[in-house]
Design brief:
Elements: H1 2-25, H2 30-59, H3 71-90, H4 95-106, H5 110-122, H6 131-148, H7 153-161, E1 168-173, H8 177-187, E2 191-196, H9 199-208, E3 213-217, H10 225-232, E4 243-247, H11 252-260, E5 264-267, H12 272-284
Helix pairs in contact: 1-2, 1-3, 2-6, 3-4, 9-10
């Protein structure tokens, strides 16, 4: 595992330097500069995450990798980045060169190797669970930019061959089975959906898995929504930014808690468009968490 992590650290550093430098070279192209700035920020986070992974492995040497990187795979990823960085240094890098490099590397095995590492470490340390979801955001932003180009069809064959590195995960918490069923159907086209009948069941779910968005009722037997949120924060400190409370009645203490913590909420009966919009809003505001070990 050490060898893979060390290789990833080098690749993330090289890519981040390339994107950062290219954003200055193409300063007149606003859309491209925005993309490159976001990618450079992502690569910086990936670099530091792999640094945390290296330290985690140092403290837990029993964790081994079932994968071995061969030189062919490494060269196919390293060479386009190195060549593009050299052209950037020489002042000869073109936008077409850069986009070809991005497609050739970002849609290669590189990101799947990265996700393999974080998924392996997620079994031992919760701080790594977020990374696969964030990686998919990284890929989606590149895809959206490519699709906006007038000659985007040129890159589509490569892009469409690569499967997603992460499928969104949602958790629906409600004691009313018909609500759980319809919410699952509404969210299933955007990701995998798990269900829980009360807050206690939901706590067990989030202890074992990472969720991008949680939709929770307030009034439930065994454990209600507010108590669930308070207990869940001990497991996932970012829980408040990704939970949506739903209820037909919001008591004053509930509304105070929701307002004080800037939590999303919907009043039943709920509009389908509003449900999807709230979920979309949360997904669009996902930020990288701190890398401190827990």
């Amino acid at each position: 595992m050490n060898e893979i992590i060390d290789w990833l650290i080098g690749i993330e550093k090289l890519a981040g330097d390339l994107y950062d430098g290219a954003s200055q070279m193409f300063a007149g192209d606003e859309a491209l500069v925005t993309l490159l700035g976001d990618l450079a920020s992502d690569e910086s986070w990936h670099y530091h995450l792999m640094g945390s992974a290296a330290e985690f492995i140092r403290r837990n040497p029993e964790i081994k990798s079932d994968l071995v990187l061969d030189s062919g795979i490494m060269d196919s990823i390293e060479q386009p980045l190195k060549q593009s960085f050299q052209r950037l240094t020489d002042g000869t890098l073109t936008k077409e060169d850069l986009l070809q490099c991005i497609v050739d590397t970002e849609y290669s095995e590189w990101n799947h190797i990265f996700v393999y590492v974080v998924n392996t470490l997620s079994q031992q340390g919760r701080q790594f669970m977020f990374a696969a979801s964030k990686m998919q955001d990284h890929m989606d932003e590149i895809t959206q930019y490519i699709q906006s180009l007038p000659d985007s069809a040129y890159f589509f064959e490569k892009i469409n061959k690569i499967p997603a590195v992460w499928r969104r995960k949602f958790l629906v918490v409600d004691d009313f089975e018909p609500i759980r069923t319809v919410m699952k159907e509404l969210l299933a086209e955007d990701g995998n959906v798990d269900l829980a009948g009360n807050g206690r069941e939901a706590l067990q779910k989030i202890s074992a898995s990472y969720y991008d968005v949680i939709v929770s009722d307030l009034d439930m037997p065994v454990m209600g929504g507010l108590d669930f949120c308070r207990e869940a924060e001990k497991i996932d400190k970012d829980i408040k930014r990704k939970i949506i409370f739903c209820s037909g009645r919001f008591e004053s203490d509930s509304m105070q808690y929701i307002t004080d913590n800037n939590i999303q909420y919907l009043k039943k009966p709920m509009n389908i468009f509003d449900i999807r919009q709230k979920v979309k809003d949360i997904l669009s505001k996902i930020e990288c968490p701190s890398l401190q070990s827990k």
